[in-house]
Amino acid sequence: MHPTTDNAPGPAGIPPARPTLLLSMGPGIAERLLAERHRTRLAALARTDHRLVAHELADPAPEVAAALAEAEVLLTCWGAPRLTERVLSAAPRLRAVVHAAGSVKHHVTEACWARGIAVTSAAAANALPVAEYTLAMILLANKQVLHSARRHRALRAPHDWQRELAGAGNYRRTIGIIGASRIGRRVIELLRPFDLRVLLHDPYVDTAEAAALGVGLVPLDALCADSDIVSVHAPELPATRHLLGPRELARMPDGATLINTSRGSLVDESALLPELVSGRLNAVLDVTDPEVPPAASPLYELPNVLLTPHIAGSLGTELHRMTDQALDELERYASGLPFAHPVLPESLHHSA
Questions:
Q1: Backbone phi, then psi, for 269, in 5-degree steps?
Q2: Residue of 145, 139, 146, 261 lying closest to 194 (CA atoms)
Q3: C-alpha closest to that of 332 among 68, 45, 91
Q4: What is the percentage of the chain residues whose pLDDT exceeds 70?
Q5: Catalytic member of 106, 115, 310, 321
Q6: One of 107, 263, 320, 332 is an active-site residue; which one?
Q7: Cis geometry, peptide bond prior to residue 290 (ω within 30 degrees of 0)
Q8: Which of 188, 212, 183, 186 is nearest to 199 (CA)?
Q9: CA triplet 137, 142, 143: central angle to 5 degrees?
Q10: Is residue 320 flagged as an active site residue?
Q11: pLDDT tens track for 157-180
Protein backbone atom coordinates (compact mmCIF):
# COMPACT_ATOMS: atom_id res chain seq x y z
CA MET A 1 0.00 0.00 0.00
CA HIS A 2 1.33 3.42 -0.90
CA PRO A 3 0.75 7.00 0.24
CA THR A 4 -2.37 8.64 -1.14
CA THR A 5 -0.52 11.78 -2.22
CA ASP A 6 1.80 12.20 -5.20
CA ASN A 7 5.18 11.46 -3.66
CA ALA A 8 7.58 11.56 -6.60
CA PRO A 9 11.12 11.67 -5.20
CA GLY A 10 12.58 15.15 -4.83
CA PRO A 11 16.21 16.30 -4.63
CA ALA A 12 18.63 13.73 -3.22
CA GLY A 13 15.86 11.13 -3.18
CA ILE A 14 13.83 12.95 -0.49
CA PRO A 15 10.11 12.89 -1.29
CA PRO A 16 8.36 16.32 -1.29
CA ALA A 17 5.25 14.99 0.46
CA ARG A 18 6.24 13.44 3.77
CA PRO A 19 3.94 11.00 5.57
CA THR A 20 2.97 11.74 9.16
CA LEU A 21 4.76 9.32 11.49
CA LEU A 22 4.53 8.35 15.16
CA LEU A 23 7.22 6.48 17.07
CA SER A 24 5.90 3.62 19.20
CA MET A 25 8.15 1.37 21.28
CA GLY A 26 9.23 0.54 24.81
CA PRO A 27 10.64 3.13 27.22
CA GLY A 28 14.25 4.09 26.56
CA ILE A 29 14.44 2.31 23.19
CA ALA A 30 14.15 5.35 20.90
CA GLU A 31 17.10 7.06 22.55
CA ARG A 32 19.32 4.07 21.76
CA LEU A 33 17.81 3.42 18.34
CA LEU A 34 18.06 6.93 16.89
CA ALA A 35 21.45 8.58 16.67
CA GLU A 36 21.60 12.25 15.65
CA ARG A 37 22.05 11.32 12.00
CA HIS A 38 18.94 9.15 12.18
CA ARG A 39 16.86 11.94 13.70
CA THR A 40 18.00 14.27 10.91
CA ARG A 41 17.10 11.75 8.23
CA LEU A 42 13.79 10.93 9.89
CA ALA A 43 12.83 14.61 9.93
CA ALA A 44 13.56 14.82 6.21
CA LEU A 45 11.50 11.73 5.40
CA ALA A 46 8.43 12.22 7.60
CA ARG A 47 6.45 14.74 9.60
CA THR A 48 7.12 13.63 13.16
CA ASP A 49 8.25 14.67 16.60
CA HIS A 50 11.03 12.26 17.54
CA ARG A 51 10.69 13.37 21.18
CA LEU A 52 7.14 11.96 21.31
CA VAL A 53 7.31 8.20 21.71
CA ALA A 54 4.13 6.21 22.32
CA HIS A 55 4.70 3.50 24.92
CA GLU A 56 0.95 3.02 25.37
CA LEU A 57 -1.70 3.12 22.62
CA ALA A 58 -4.73 1.43 24.18
CA ASP A 59 -5.19 4.26 26.70
CA PRO A 60 -2.85 6.95 25.40
CA ALA A 61 -2.05 10.37 26.81
CA PRO A 62 -3.81 13.23 24.97
CA GLU A 63 -0.75 14.21 22.92
CA VAL A 64 -0.19 10.60 21.87
CA ALA A 65 -3.87 10.17 20.98
CA ALA A 66 -3.73 13.26 18.79
CA ALA A 67 -0.59 12.04 17.02
CA LEU A 68 -2.06 8.55 16.55
CA ALA A 69 -5.17 10.00 14.93
CA GLU A 70 -3.00 11.69 12.29
CA ALA A 71 -0.33 9.02 11.83
CA GLU A 72 0.05 7.37 8.44
CA VAL A 73 3.10 5.37 9.55
CA LEU A 74 4.15 3.86 12.86
CA LEU A 75 7.88 3.40 13.44
CA THR A 76 8.09 0.59 16.01
CA CYS A 77 10.75 -1.36 17.84
CA TRP A 78 11.02 -3.62 20.90
CA GLY A 79 8.25 -3.14 23.42
CA ALA A 80 5.79 -1.66 20.93
CA PRO A 81 2.19 -1.96 22.19
CA ARG A 82 -0.21 -4.30 20.41
CA LEU A 83 -2.12 -2.85 17.49
CA THR A 84 -5.55 -4.10 18.45
CA GLU A 85 -8.85 -3.20 16.80
CA ARG A 86 -9.35 -0.58 19.51
CA VAL A 87 -5.98 1.00 18.73
CA LEU A 88 -6.56 0.90 14.98
CA SER A 89 -9.98 2.52 15.36
CA ALA A 90 -8.15 5.49 16.89
CA ALA A 91 -5.71 5.54 13.94
CA PRO A 92 -7.94 5.99 10.85
CA ARG A 93 -5.09 7.24 8.66
CA LEU A 94 -2.64 4.44 9.49
CA ARG A 95 -1.29 2.75 6.35
CA ALA A 96 2.06 1.22 7.31
CA VAL A 97 4.10 -0.18 10.20
CA VAL A 98 7.89 0.03 9.90
CA HIS A 99 9.44 -2.19 12.56
CA ALA A 100 13.08 -1.40 13.39
CA ALA A 101 13.66 -4.86 14.90
CA GLY A 102 12.98 -8.53 14.12
CA SER A 103 9.68 -10.28 14.77
CA VAL A 104 6.42 -8.33 14.49
CA LYS A 105 4.34 -11.05 16.16
CA HIS A 106 4.23 -9.24 19.47
CA HIS A 107 2.40 -6.15 18.19
CA VAL A 108 1.05 -6.68 14.67
CA THR A 109 -2.35 -8.37 15.00
CA GLU A 110 -4.93 -9.93 12.70
CA ALA A 111 -6.71 -6.58 12.78
CA CYS A 112 -3.72 -5.03 10.99
CA TRP A 113 -3.84 -7.58 8.19
CA ALA A 114 -7.63 -7.20 7.89
CA ARG A 115 -7.16 -3.46 7.53
CA GLY A 116 -4.58 -3.98 4.77
CA ILE A 117 -1.77 -2.22 6.62
CA ALA A 118 1.62 -2.70 5.00
CA VAL A 119 4.26 -4.07 7.36
CA THR A 120 8.03 -4.29 7.13
CA SER A 121 10.67 -5.34 9.63
CA ALA A 122 14.42 -5.13 10.07
CA ALA A 123 14.67 -8.87 10.72
CA ALA A 124 17.33 -9.18 8.02
CA ALA A 125 19.48 -6.56 9.73
CA ASN A 126 19.00 -8.22 13.12
CA ALA A 127 19.92 -11.63 11.69
CA LEU A 128 23.54 -10.64 11.04
CA PRO A 129 24.77 -10.11 14.63
CA VAL A 130 23.06 -13.34 15.72
CA ALA A 131 24.80 -15.19 12.90
CA GLU A 132 28.13 -13.56 13.79
CA TYR A 133 27.72 -14.57 17.45
CA THR A 134 26.90 -18.11 16.37
CA LEU A 135 29.92 -18.33 14.07
CA ALA A 136 32.20 -17.10 16.84
CA MET A 137 30.78 -19.64 19.28
CA ILE A 138 31.10 -22.52 16.80
CA LEU A 139 34.76 -21.76 16.19
CA LEU A 140 35.52 -21.26 19.89
CA ALA A 141 33.62 -24.39 20.93
CA ASN A 142 35.49 -26.59 18.48
CA LYS A 143 38.78 -25.18 19.80
CA GLN A 144 37.62 -26.02 23.35
CA VAL A 145 38.44 -22.47 24.39
CA LEU A 146 36.32 -22.48 27.55
CA HIS A 147 37.90 -25.71 28.78
CA SER A 148 41.48 -24.70 28.01
CA ALA A 149 41.09 -21.19 29.48
CA ARG A 150 39.68 -22.62 32.69
CA ARG A 151 42.39 -25.29 32.95
CA HIS A 152 45.14 -22.77 32.15
CA ARG A 153 43.89 -20.48 34.92
CA ALA A 154 43.90 -23.40 37.36
CA LEU A 155 47.29 -24.90 36.37
CA ARG A 156 49.33 -21.70 35.93
CA ALA A 157 52.26 -23.82 34.68
CA PRO A 158 53.61 -25.41 31.48
CA HIS A 159 51.37 -28.19 30.21
CA ASP A 160 51.07 -30.58 27.26
CA TRP A 161 48.12 -28.84 25.59
CA GLN A 162 48.51 -30.74 22.32
CA ARG A 163 47.89 -33.96 24.19
CA GLU A 164 45.01 -32.68 26.31
CA LEU A 165 43.31 -30.99 23.35
CA ALA A 166 43.97 -33.73 20.80
CA GLY A 167 40.27 -33.87 19.95
CA ALA A 168 39.89 -30.10 19.48
CA GLY A 169 39.96 -28.08 16.27
CA ASN A 170 37.82 -26.82 13.40
CA TYR A 171 39.14 -29.01 10.60
CA ARG A 172 36.44 -31.22 9.05
CA ARG A 173 34.09 -31.02 11.99
CA THR A 174 30.34 -31.38 11.44
CA ILE A 175 27.97 -28.53 12.25
CA GLY A 176 24.23 -29.19 12.47
CA ILE A 177 21.93 -26.25 11.76
CA ILE A 178 18.32 -26.57 12.90
CA GLY A 179 16.18 -24.17 10.88
CA ALA A 180 16.90 -22.44 7.57
CA SER A 181 15.57 -19.17 8.94
CA ARG A 182 17.13 -15.83 8.01
CA ILE A 183 19.62 -16.38 10.81
CA GLY A 184 20.18 -20.03 9.97
CA ARG A 185 20.93 -19.12 6.36
CA ARG A 186 23.32 -16.36 7.42
CA VAL A 187 25.16 -18.82 9.66
CA ILE A 188 25.44 -21.25 6.73
CA GLU A 189 26.80 -18.42 4.59
CA LEU A 190 29.36 -17.41 7.22
CA LEU A 191 30.53 -21.01 7.62
CA ARG A 192 31.40 -21.43 3.92
CA PRO A 193 35.05 -20.28 4.11
CA PHE A 194 35.85 -22.90 6.75
CA ASP A 195 36.74 -26.58 6.38
CA LEU A 196 33.50 -27.70 7.99
CA ARG A 197 30.72 -30.08 6.99
CA VAL A 198 27.29 -28.51 7.46
CA LEU A 199 24.05 -30.43 7.94
CA LEU A 200 20.57 -28.90 7.96
CA HIS A 201 17.22 -29.94 9.34
CA ASP A 202 14.22 -27.92 8.20
CA PRO A 203 10.85 -29.41 7.17
CA TYR A 204 10.25 -26.53 4.74
CA VAL A 205 13.46 -27.08 2.73
CA ASP A 206 13.77 -29.69 -0.03
CA THR A 207 16.92 -31.43 -1.26
CA ALA A 208 17.34 -29.08 -4.23
CA GLU A 209 17.27 -25.98 -2.01
CA ALA A 210 19.61 -27.64 0.48
CA ALA A 211 22.04 -28.40 -2.35
CA ALA A 212 21.89 -24.76 -3.42
CA LEU A 213 22.73 -23.76 0.16
CA GLY A 214 25.66 -26.20 0.12
CA VAL A 215 24.40 -28.29 3.03
CA GLY A 216 23.22 -31.84 3.58
CA LEU A 217 19.51 -32.13 4.39
CA VAL A 218 18.90 -34.72 7.10
CA PRO A 219 16.22 -35.70 9.65
CA LEU A 220 16.57 -34.21 13.12
CA ASP A 221 17.69 -37.50 14.70
CA ALA A 222 20.47 -37.89 12.15
CA LEU A 223 21.59 -34.29 12.57
CA CYS A 224 21.87 -34.70 16.34
CA ALA A 225 23.73 -38.00 16.04
CA ASP A 226 26.23 -36.80 13.42
CA SER A 227 27.04 -33.26 14.56
CA ASP A 228 29.89 -32.05 16.72
CA ILE A 229 27.92 -28.85 17.23
CA VAL A 230 24.14 -28.42 17.02
CA SER A 231 22.98 -24.82 16.56
CA VAL A 232 19.29 -23.92 16.93
CA HIS A 233 17.75 -21.34 14.57
CA ALA A 234 14.13 -22.48 14.26
CA PRO A 235 11.24 -20.13 15.15
CA GLU A 236 9.24 -20.33 18.36
CA LEU A 237 6.00 -22.07 17.39
CA PRO A 238 3.71 -24.55 19.14
CA ALA A 239 5.22 -27.27 16.95
CA THR A 240 8.79 -26.39 17.95
CA ARG A 241 8.34 -26.37 21.71
CA HIS A 242 10.91 -28.78 23.20
CA LEU A 243 12.06 -29.65 19.68
CA LEU A 244 15.22 -30.89 21.38
CA GLY A 245 14.10 -33.24 24.13
CA PRO A 246 15.55 -36.31 25.86
CA ARG A 247 15.61 -38.40 22.67
CA GLU A 248 17.40 -35.81 20.54
CA LEU A 249 19.88 -34.77 23.24
CA ALA A 250 20.75 -38.39 23.99
CA ARG A 251 21.68 -38.88 20.33
CA MET A 252 24.29 -36.10 20.43
CA PRO A 253 27.85 -37.49 20.66
CA ASP A 254 29.83 -37.27 23.88
CA GLY A 255 31.58 -33.91 24.01
CA ALA A 256 29.23 -32.27 21.49
CA THR A 257 28.08 -28.67 21.99
CA LEU A 258 24.54 -27.30 21.81
CA ILE A 259 24.22 -23.63 20.81
CA ASN A 260 20.86 -21.93 21.27
CA THR A 261 20.34 -18.35 20.07
CA SER A 262 16.69 -18.85 19.09
CA ARG A 263 14.27 -19.21 22.00
CA GLY A 264 14.66 -21.12 25.24
CA SER A 265 11.42 -23.04 24.74
CA LEU A 266 12.88 -24.99 21.80
CA VAL A 267 15.07 -26.96 24.21
CA ASP A 268 13.68 -29.11 27.02
CA GLU A 269 15.84 -27.74 29.81
CA SER A 270 14.83 -30.53 32.20
CA ALA A 271 16.39 -32.97 29.73
CA LEU A 272 19.39 -30.79 28.96
CA LEU A 273 20.49 -30.14 32.54
CA PRO A 274 21.42 -33.77 33.37
CA GLU A 275 23.50 -33.95 30.18
CA LEU A 276 25.35 -30.78 31.21
CA VAL A 277 25.76 -31.66 34.89
CA SER A 278 27.27 -35.01 33.92
CA GLY A 279 29.69 -33.22 31.60
CA ARG A 280 28.67 -35.35 28.62
CA LEU A 281 27.52 -32.33 26.59
CA ASN A 282 28.56 -28.69 26.44
CA ALA A 283 26.29 -25.73 25.79
CA VAL A 284 26.34 -22.12 24.65
CA LEU A 285 23.01 -20.66 25.74
CA ASP A 286 22.07 -17.10 24.86
CA VAL A 287 18.41 -17.88 25.57
CA THR A 288 16.81 -20.03 28.25
CA ASP A 289 13.35 -20.92 29.51
CA PRO A 290 12.61 -18.89 31.57
CA GLU A 291 14.49 -16.02 29.96
CA VAL A 292 16.47 -15.44 33.16
CA PRO A 293 17.24 -18.75 34.91
CA PRO A 294 16.49 -18.96 38.64
CA ALA A 295 19.34 -17.77 40.84
CA ALA A 296 20.03 -21.33 41.96
CA SER A 297 20.22 -22.73 38.42
CA PRO A 298 23.34 -24.83 37.71
CA LEU A 299 23.63 -23.05 34.36
CA TYR A 300 25.41 -20.13 36.04
CA GLU A 301 28.19 -22.29 37.48
CA LEU A 302 28.71 -25.28 35.20
CA PRO A 303 32.20 -25.12 33.65
CA ASN A 304 30.96 -26.59 30.35
CA VAL A 305 28.25 -23.95 29.85
CA LEU A 306 28.64 -20.46 28.43
CA LEU A 307 25.52 -18.57 29.51
CA THR A 308 24.93 -15.11 28.03
CA PRO A 309 21.96 -12.77 28.69
CA HIS A 310 20.26 -12.76 25.26
CA ILE A 311 22.92 -10.56 23.66
CA ALA A 312 23.38 -12.35 20.33
CA GLY A 313 20.88 -10.05 18.61
CA SER A 314 21.43 -6.38 17.88
CA LEU A 315 23.21 -4.68 20.74
CA GLY A 316 24.74 -1.22 21.14
CA THR A 317 25.94 0.10 17.80
CA GLU A 318 24.26 -2.83 16.02
CA LEU A 319 20.87 -1.22 16.72
CA HIS A 320 21.84 1.41 14.17
CA ARG A 321 21.95 -1.20 11.40
CA MET A 322 18.27 -1.90 12.10
CA THR A 323 17.52 1.83 12.16
CA ASP A 324 19.23 2.30 8.81
CA GLN A 325 17.16 -0.47 7.25
CA ALA A 326 13.95 0.90 8.77
CA LEU A 327 14.62 4.37 7.42
CA ASP A 328 15.47 2.93 4.00
CA GLU A 329 12.04 1.29 4.05
CA LEU A 330 10.40 4.53 5.17
CA GLU A 331 12.04 6.33 2.26
CA ARG A 332 10.72 3.71 -0.15
CA TYR A 333 7.23 4.08 1.28
CA ALA A 334 7.32 7.88 1.12
CA SER A 335 8.47 7.65 -2.50
CA GLY A 336 5.55 5.38 -3.44
CA LEU A 337 7.67 2.25 -3.73
CA PRO A 338 6.89 -1.17 -2.20
CA PHE A 339 8.86 -2.28 0.82
CA ALA A 340 12.07 -4.18 0.09
CA HIS A 341 11.53 -6.33 3.20
CA PRO A 342 7.76 -6.80 3.52
CA VAL A 343 6.24 -8.99 6.21
CA LEU A 344 3.43 -11.12 4.81
CA PRO A 345 0.81 -12.68 7.10
CA GLU A 346 1.11 -16.12 5.53
CA SER A 347 4.83 -16.25 6.34
CA LEU A 348 4.23 -15.78 10.07
CA HIS A 349 2.92 -19.32 10.48
CA HIS A 350 6.45 -20.72 10.14
CA SER A 351 8.71 -17.80 11.02
CA ALA A 352 9.78 -15.92 14.13
A1: -65, -30
A2: 139
A3: 45
A4: 94
A5: 310
A6: 263
A7: yes
A8: 188
A9: 100
A10: no
A11: 999 999 999 999 999 999 999 999
